[in-house]
Specification:
Length: 255
């Protein structure tokens, strides 16, 4: 079997007497889109925070390939190829959409923001940044300040910034949350474009079952911080335990 691109072993975090993530062990493969589901308070976002480095575990380890990254900071994990959309919001709201993405391109090339003053001399960087706007359907608002974007376009910008940093592991926490019926399909199409690259690993936290069904290669279910189910979508959705704790529906409704 191909080695996992990302692996967590007995991952645990406690806040006082509360165990938010409880000895979760799971491996994720390149070319696979895994949707993590569970009721509110199940530990989904906390698990994401542990993987991306916003939180340090009380116990357990995190591996990217064969590398133990448990002790790395969030920024070091981003440089190592773990990308999480929310990390990239609120960069420079008064700068244009294009300039925000250009700064992300600069960071990916190892060029610091000190060269911001000489931005006009970096035509190749701007061209590369513009290509990410085209990929995320934002070329038409390239000159607008980020603060003027609609919520849907802000979410698309998150993906453009993520693409600019060129991770091989993509993490999306409820990417369609708060979006209109018209806006949400565009985000899902962008995620579908990313998954075509079989070198990429995608982790997605999502509540909407129609989104889960349409995207998931695999579903992981958390409940009270513990992993209670992991497998193919139809098999996991059909489990009585999953219907009881997450779907809240009788067996015939889960078909």
């Amino acid at each position: 079997m191909t080695p996992a691109s990302l692996r967590i072993e007995d991952l645990t975090i406690r806040f006082g007497g509360h165990t938010a993530v409880d000895a979760v062990t799971c491996a994720f493969q390149a070319g696979e889109l895994t949707v993590i589901v569970g009721p509110n308070g199940a530990g989904k976002t906390t698990c994401f925070n542990l993987i991306s480095g916003q939180l340090r575990p009380s116990a357990g380890r995190i591996f990217k390939g064969d590398r133990d990254i448990t002790g790395l900071s969030a920024s070091a994990r981003a440089k190592a190829g773990i990308g999480r959309a929310f990390q990239l919001t609120n960069l420079f709201p008064q700068l244009s959409v294009l300039e925000n993405v250009r700064l992300a391109v600069q960071a990916q090339h190892g060029l610091g923001p000190v060269i911001f003053r000489r931005a006009r001399s970096f035509g190749k960087l701007r061209d590369e940044a513009y290509s990410f706007l085209e990929a995320t359907r934002l070329a038409g608002v390239a000159a607008q300040p980020v603060s003027a974007l609609s919520h849907g376009d802000q979410r698309k910008l998150e993906i453009a910034l993520l693409l600019a940093l060129k991770p091989d592991i993509f993490m999306f926490d409820e990417p369609t949350a708060g979006m209109s019926v018209d806006e949400a399909p565009v985000i899902l199409e962008l995620i579908e474009e990313i998954r075509k690259d079989k070198a990429k690993t995608i982790l997605l936290v999502e509540h909407k079952m129609d989104v889960v069904r349409s995207l998931a290669d695999r579903i992981v279910v958390l409940h009270n911080g513990a992993l209670v189910a992991d497998g193919l979508p139809n098999e996991v959705i059909a489990l009585p335990l999953v219907r009881e704790i997450y779907l809240g529906m009788p067996e015939e409704s889960a078909a």
